[in-house]
Specification:
By secondary structure, the chain is an alpha+beta fold. Helices cover 25% and strands 21% of the residues. Pfam families: Amino_oxidase.
Length: 316
């Protein structure tokens, strides 16, 4: 097994930076959502604040309902108990379409960026639940004390100790299928011949690396677009948030640009100062530290019919 990384650092968009006073700034993904049996165990052992999420509506923070009380009693900004929506969902006929957009699903507010996304490709578990009238939700999110980049360092050490070869700073220049049905991976100053290729680079970039033998796949990949995300990390020594939790969601009706704000710790806030939402941040003074990072074309957009594109691409 050979892991080829075009950058000098592993982990893609994950990057942890140590600021003043041993503060860790996550310039990429902020945390990990646990899934499966191990994820359920982590959720049960996690801090209560890791399970609290809020919604920013009408200039105020509202806790998203959780537990039996949250299902049976109405809580702002919702005017009715959530169990009524569940009953209505049970009496509604199942969706018959092979796919639908996020805008057509009432379970979440759709922004200008997300409203055309495919439910089947982006939220497969949600799509399957809607098809079978089943539903399960877990709000827990966790991170690491030294930053998510420490996970990458541990994974690298684990893989190399088991014989995995890791090449860093080696961008792939081309992919071609050989007569022996193996793949030739062309690098800047060398090449590799492998039986299988698992790619984690953007679809539009991968489409340009494929040879003529993979035209259907290259065409399907070239139609997948991506959006750019700006991350702004702010630190304030004196700020104390009025709530404890992962963060809060911002519906597109409140702000069409900012989807979410994450609370890194009781004394730090991740926000978007560029949009001057002082009411959301709860900050009265300028932040003591600010880091801005632009992730160019970082999130692929799986629009309606995305799964059909991939199925057609892999047909012999």
């Amino acid at each position: 097994v050979v892991l080829v990384e075009g950058n000098e650092c592993l982990g893609g968009w994950i990057r942890s930076v140590r600021g003043p006073g041993s503060v860790i700034f996550e310039l990429g993904p902020q945390g990990i959502w646990p899934v499966g049996s191990p994820g359920s165990l982590v959720s049960e052992l996690g801090h209560l604040a890791a399970q609290n999420r809020f919604l920013y509506v009408g200039g105020a923070l509202h806790a998203l309902p959780s537990g039996i009380r949250g299902l049976l009693c109405p809580s702002p900004p919702f005017s009715k108990p959530l169990f009524q929506a569940g009953l209505r969902d049970l009496t509604t006929s199942r969706g018959k379409d092979p796919d639908e957009t996020a805008q057509s699903c009432p379970a979440r507010p759709a922004s200008e960026v997300t409203r055309e996304l495919s439910i089947r490709s982006c939220f497969l578990s949600l799509f399957q639940a809607e098809q079978t009238h089943s539903w399960a939700e877990c709000w827990c999110q966790w991170s690491l004390r030294g930053g998510l980049e420490t996970l990458l360092q541990a994974l690298k050490a684990h893989l190399t100790s088991r014989g995995v070869r890791v090449l860093q700073g080696q961008p792939v220049c081309g992919l071609s299928l050989q007569a022996e049905r193996c793949w030739k991976v062309s690098l800047e100053d060398s090449s590799l011949e492998v039986d299988h290729v698992i790619s984690a680079i953007p679809a539009s970039v991968l489409s340009k690396l494929l040879s003529a033998e993979a035209v259907p796949l290259a065409y399907a990949l070239s139609t997948i677009t991506a959006v750019t995300v700006a991350m702004v990390n702010l630190q304030d020594q004196e700020a104390r948030l009025p709530v404890q939790g992962v963060g809060h969601l911002v519906p597109s009706s409140e702000d069409p640009v900012i989807p979410e704000i994450v609370y890194d710790s009781p004394g730090a806030v991740l926000s978007q100062e560029l949009f001057q939402q002082e009411a959301e941040k709860g900050l009265n003074e300028p932040p003591s530290h600010c880091l801005v990072h632009l992730h160019q074309n970082s999130i692929s957009q799986y629009t309606l019919g995305h799964w059909q594109k991939l199925e057609s691409a892999i047909q012999p």
